[in-house]
Specification:
The structure is a single chain. By secondary structure, this protein is an alpha/beta fold. It has two domains: 158 residues, Rossmann fold (3-Layer(aba) Sandwich), CATH 3.40.50; 43 residues, no CATH class. 41% of the residues lie in helices and 11% in strands. The protein has a four-stranded parallel beta sheet, with helices on both faces. Strand 3, helix 3 and strand 4 form a beta-alpha-beta unit. Bound molecules: FE2/S2 (inorganic) cluster. FE2/S2 (inorganic) cluster binds next to helix 3.
Length: 206
Amino acid sequence: MPETDVDVSTGAATGDGRDAGESFEPRITAFVCNWCTYTGADLAGTSRLPMASNVRIIRLPCTGRIDHLFVVKAFERGADGVIVSGCHPADCHYTAGNYHARRRFGVFRELLSFLGVDPLRLTFSWVSASEGAKWADVVNETVARVRELGPFDAYHRLADAPLPDGDPFAVVDGATRGSRETTGGATDAPAGGPGTPATGADGSAA
Ligand code: FES
């Protein structure tokens, strides 16, 4: 798995400029349902429970609304770990959203491995509105586990790597970019502005 290339013991700089090792502070994105976990997290805060401050919460109506692509996007945008949390089974305010989510994320874990993301970076939990202490535990345990795993930079190393010479996608991309410039110039560029000259309705130069 690509992540095993990361040597957190050396403290070497990682792909996104953060130091691995002791100074590493994991960035955790939490997708939570509005009705249970968000309220539970609020309770943990208002109860002043000791909790790591590494988590950024994104509130959604229900775990059934949490598309797995949100999780992929979070890792792509720099998260080191992700939490998905909602109402306990049978407590979903939309009846079965959490059942759908449970099934979806059961399959998604295998896809994560395929993508090169250690499934340990994804935490799935049920936290009700009255479980502020449980939310604090979920946060602290997730942060500790991800800290042990080290920064997630596998995606960035892959995305930042230069394309190999003669890559067919490079050719396609270049052609697409060129055609976009031509179309965009004809439609959007102000008359007399830079780019392709605007054309009239009959195709003649304006
Ligand atoms: Fe909370 Fe559906 S409303 S999981």
